[in-house]
Write a structure and sequence with these properties.
Length: about 400
């Protein structure tokens, strides 16, 4: 036992020697009803685009549900990061710090995502009346089941909560505001028969927004009934998912800011953001100049490898202005020198073909994994290049 204790002590000393140094961080006290909890706010920020996060990291109460409820990894990433962009309208990143949602637990979110049941359906599902809190419209199941399901889509697919903490007096932090993301289906997938064929129904944008607004009003009422959320600013945003086969993410459509203590939504602000796939007919129709620049870039890449045509871009627009372009080039190399030479060539093409005011990122990959990264931030005179 003595020998084991010595080994354990040595192991702990080794871990402490390798642990990150948090000496240059502000220490604050996180106030709670029942106890005070020490927390750390890192001084260093990666970018103005991101919030600092309280340490030690505390996972959200509904952690993991997003993976099952959203259609693609693209939607998952954009739903989370886009919600942070919207939060910056109300919660200044220099004054607020981020915390994963702690008010809506896993069980609550799952219940809210259900349909509203009839009494017969409640009995069939073995649920109590108090659990009949689904936010999706009722499906009475009358007539042909396939048509019944098609005519009663599930609009709400996921609810995401982000908390924003603000530093108060005497080195304390408290909950300063909450953002709620409501992920909505633009395409409703359903199976009339368990394990049978999957059918789909496209949901028009105006219908999706109309139903999303109704759901948001009910969500706000329920949040205000919670003790910790009765008197804090709340922002609710509507996110429209893309299809399961899409290679670009959906986007946020609207958001509303609700003042402290208010239980009503007065107005909605439009979110003028959109992703495009390059090359595509839609991109050429809506943004011909940008799409043409990409095609010229693609053509020059193919001149280096004449039998290759796999260049794909994901373009992010705010309004009519291209903000970011992420390009993927999957290719087969037969040596490291070949990979380096190709990367240098592509880095030059980035500077030649795309204006300085946009950010461009190029990932060069092969069957063996990532080969190179080329990253040119807006207004930079030369790109950052990394060879893996």
């Amino acid at each position: 036992m003595k020998k084991l204790s010595i080994i354990a002590l040595a192991f702990l000393l080794l871990l402490s020697g390798c642990a990150p140094n948090f000496q240059k961080k502000d220490e604050v006290v996180q106030t709670k009803e029942k106890a005070k909890e020490k927390a750390i706010i890192p001084k260093y920020k990666i970018s103005d685009k991101y919030y600092q996060t309280l340490l030690p990291f505390k996972p959200g109460e509904a952690r993991g549900l997003i993976v099952n409820n959203l259609n693609t990894r693209y939607d998952i990433n954009e739903f989370e990061m886009g919600l942070m962009r919207i939060a910056q309208h109300s919660f200044d990143p220099d004054k607020y710090v981020f915390r994963e949602g702690q008010e809506l637990d896993r069980k609550t979110v799952k219940l809210w995502l259900n349909r509203k049941y009839t009494k017969d359906q409640l009995a069939k599902e073995g649920l109590k009346e108090s659990q009949n809190i689904g936010l999706n419209p009722l499906n009475e199941g009358k007539g042909d089941l396939k048509n019944s399901l098609a005519n009663h889509p599930i609009y709400l697919s996921h609810i995401l909560e982000h908390d924003y903490m603000i530093k108060g007096d005497n080195d304390t932090v408290k909950l300063g505001g909450v953002t709620i993301g409501l992920a909505l289906n633009s395409i409703y997938y359903y199976q009339p028969v368990p394990f049978g064929d999957t059918f789909e129904k496209k949901i028009p944008k105006d219908e999706m927004v109309r139903e999303g607004r109704k759901i948001a009003e009910e969500v706000l009422k329920r949040l205000r009934a919670m003790k910790d959320l009765s008197d804090v600013p709340i922002t609710i945003a509507l996110f429209g998912q893309e299809s399961r086969t899409s290679v670009i993410p959906g986007t946020f459509l609207e958001y509303t800011d609700v003042d402290s203590g208010s239980s009503s939504i007065d107005s909605w602000e439009k979110v003028d953001e959109k992703y495009y796939l390059f090359p595509s007919n839609q991109a050429m129709e809506d943004h011909r100049d940008d799409a043409t620049a990409f095609l010229n870039f693609k053509q020059d890449v193919e001149e280096y490898f004449p039998n290759f045509n796999g260049v794909i871009g994901k373009a992010f627009y705010e309004g009519d202005q291209l903000q970011e372009l992420n390009i993927t080039i999957p290719i087969q190399f037969y040596g490291k020198a070949e990979s380096i030479g190709f990367t240098q060539y592509v880095a030059g093409l980035v500077m030649e073909h795309f204006p300085k005011y946009i950010s461009v990122s190029v990932n060069v990959t092969s069957v063996d994994g990532p080969e190179a990264l080329i990253d040119r931030k807006a207004d930079q005179n030369e790109p950052y290049v990394h060879i893996y």
